[in-house]
C-alpha cells in the first residue's frame, strides 16, 4: 500500500495532528541513516518509506500501552526505512559474512602482534590464497561493507534520542567519544590505506584518479580501500559491541509497547 492510499485509510483529525507534530522524525532518522548508506540510496526513498511508517504508527498507536507516540513512531519509521533498504540490498550475504571474517582476523592478529596486520597474515589465518583474499577486499569495497543486518543490530543514534526521553545526557558524550575514536583509528591506519581514505572521502577522487596518484591500478586501489575499511571495522568493534546490547534492549521494548 502506498503512502497516499494509507493516509486516506487512516485520515482523521487525531491522525492528522499526530502526523503533523511528528513529521520531523522522518527527516531526522532518514538523514542519520543516509550517513551510513551507499551513495546509490536516495534520501527521498527513505523519507517516503518513513512517512509510510509514521502513518502506520498513527493508525496503530495505543496510548494505553504506556509509550509516548514519539517513541512508538520513531521505531516504526526506522523499521519502515530498513524494510525499504532490504528491497534494494542485492549484495549477497556471503560478501557480508566474508567481510566480517576478515575484520575479525585483522582484529585477532593486531591484538596478538601489537602492529598492523599484513595481507599475507590475514589470508593465512583464514586459509585463503592471496588472490581469494584480494577478491574479498574488492567485494567489500564495492558494497561499502554495508549490511542491513548490521545496521539493524547497531541501531540508530537519532532514534535512540527520540525513543528514550529519559536517556542519560552522557549518551551524547559517548557518541562524541565514538567519533573521536574513529578519527584516531583513521589516523592510525597504515600510510597507504590512510592516503587512499583521505583521497577518496576528503578529496573526493575516484578510484582511477587515486590509482594515478599512487602509480597503481584501479583494482589495487579498490583492494587497499577495502582493507582500510575492514581494518577500521576491526579496530572499532569494541565500540559497536558496547552499543549493540542496550540498543537491542530498547528495540525489544519498543516492539512490546507496540504489540
Overview of this protein structure:
This protein has 14 helices and no strands. The protein has 259 residues and is mostly helical. It has two domains: 3-88, RNA polymerase sigma factor, region 2, helix turn helix motif (Rna Polymerase Sigma Factor, Chain: A); 93-254, Up-down Bundle (Butyryl-CoA Dehydrogenase, subunit A, domain 3). The two termini are 21 Å apart. One of its GO terms (biological process) is DNA-templated transcription initiation. Residues 185-233 are annotated as: Sigma-70 factor domain-4. Sigma factors are initiation factors that promote the attachment of RNA polymerase to specific initiation sites and are then released. This sigma factor controls the expression of flagella-related genes.
